[in-house]
User: What shape does this take?
Amino acid sequence: MERSEARGFSAAMSGAFLLSCLLFAAINRHQRGPYMDEAFHVPQAQAYCHGRFLQWDPMITTLPGLYLVSVGAVKPAAWLFGWTGSVVCSAGMLRFINLLFSAGNFYLLYLLLFKIHQKNKAVSGFQRILSTLTLAMFPTLYFFTFLYYTDPGSVFFTLFAYLMCLYGNHKTSALLGFCGFMFRQTNIVWTVFCAGNVVAEKLNEAWKTELQKKKDEKISSRKGSFSDLIRILQFLTEYLITPKNLVILTALTWPYIILVTVFFGFVFINGGIVVGDRSSHEACLHFPQLFYFLSFTVFFSFPHLLTPTKIRKFLLSLRKHPVQYSLIAVISLFLIWKFTYVHKYLLADNRHYTFYVWRKVFQRHDLVKYVLVPVYIFAGWSFADTLKSKSIFWILMYFVCLLAVTVPQKLLEFRYFILPFLIYRLNIPFPSVYRQLLELAFYIVVNAVTFYLFLNRTFQWPNSDEIQRFMW
Assistant: This one.
């Protein structure tokens, strides 16, 4: 990092943290007590603070990583500064843990952008800092910085594991992946993603060697015709069934294999992936979740995905391959018809934005979910088009992980999209400064509206005196 870039990064990070501290103070003045899921998380953390480690709220469905980290941070700070009484492990103190995680996420996002795009010498320090600031302000993640939820810590350990993986420190990556798993069980998918990065790199090297042997320059390891894809899949199968290659891959990925084995052991002993209340967290094949994620990504990345050039290229592709797109449309319609699930929370809780998205869009008419198929197809095409700089093996591995982390979820919950979105956004080529500024401005506006609604547009339910607030 050059001196000017270091100064710019320090200024951006300090400014973002100062703004977050001001918002943190405002939110804690307006909402002093636990809100929404904090009603479960805060008392559980307070029980740990008082040494009651065997006490567990059966309504909590995630492992105790957040509470263990909180106690490990708050207790030494209380001893050091002489804090006593209710201030120790209060809701405000516990929320501050996530503010610290957000600062760590800011730094990790910068390091990941630097590492992933280090070969692109055209990227300036200003662009890296601007992209870091933009992703740190990503609305769905940024909002939960100020509440005692698992998301900021989950993102921190997962991004840290990904960074260590990229630097080849796989034992540390697996250990950090375990920490991420302790925050949210589905983060095991991103441990598989880290292992997949290693495998994809070896596959890409072997594929290039294969091409060089056959001197076939018409086939690339990035994209091509349908016949090229079939040939790549044949190569993939042959490579993975060769014992020598399996030994090499196992030697490279054994820390991740151990962690995934531990995960399966946990699932077997626990009788499922969810701890605590399982009645509202049942796994299912909810394939439209992929369509919701793609729409979510287009919405938050519209400066990159929804451009006139992209639309023209998509229409040209549509004219060139009508049969393929027709087949995709038919499959999409079938998946929507047979695999759409509506969780009871989605219909009942009017504090979440998803309640209004579902009511205002999908419940307008039974046919709306089918009419949106062309939008989903464009979103999927544009999404894949921005990843064409990655190897075909990386893309296949990412899409497998994306399916694994979204499809089993019955509840439409934007928080579940945070990590797959960030990993996608980190890996697309750097856009122009104008598009980055437009993206940042959009995030700032969305955040401003979100916090205004949360702080000022409160309401009450007819059967309750508690103040309710709108949120993601």
Q: What stands out?
A: The radius of gyration is 23 Å. Strands lie at 459-460, 467-468. Residues 217-223 have pLDDT under 50 and may be disordered.
